[in-house]
Write a structure and sequence with these properties.
The chain crosses the membrane at residues 6-27, 34-55. Keywords: Membrane, Transmembrane, Transmembrane helix. The chain has helices spanning 8-24, 29-45; strands at residues 52-59, 65-72, 87-93, 98-104, 114-115, 119-121, 127-129. The protein is α+β, with helices and mostly antiparallel strands. A four-stranded antiparallel beta sheet has the order 1-2-3-4, with no helix packed on it. The longest helix has 17 residues, at 8-24. The mean pLDDT is 79.
Length: 131
Amino acid sequence: MFSINRYAVPAFWLLLLLSFMTAVLSFPRWRSRLALFLIPVALVLSGGGTSYSYYGTLPAPDGQYALVVYSRILPLALPGQGSDAPAYVQLQDRAERVVGSTYVTMAQQVHSAEWAAEEVRFAEGSSIALP
């Protein structure tokens, strides 16, 4: 449900493994400090885990479908910049089944979605096909 760099996941597991190994071998105290340092580095490289949260829902004009938006949490955003974050968009039917999904560069672009007969288009040129 979220997008991260393809190198971040292996880097996360490698750093997590190294931190556990140094914690096990932490008879000298400097290795314990190294383990405590590597765990936050691994979390930063992984993007903080599941870093998308519910942003909002935009129903279709006919009520058959709805766009459900999950926005990425920005660690250093000023007030009012939350809608500038990247977002994951799901197209759901009335039974709340996901029938399509895509990513957009800014969550606020979903508010200008255009509902057509075959697809939903967003401001940046991306779209989701309707079933």
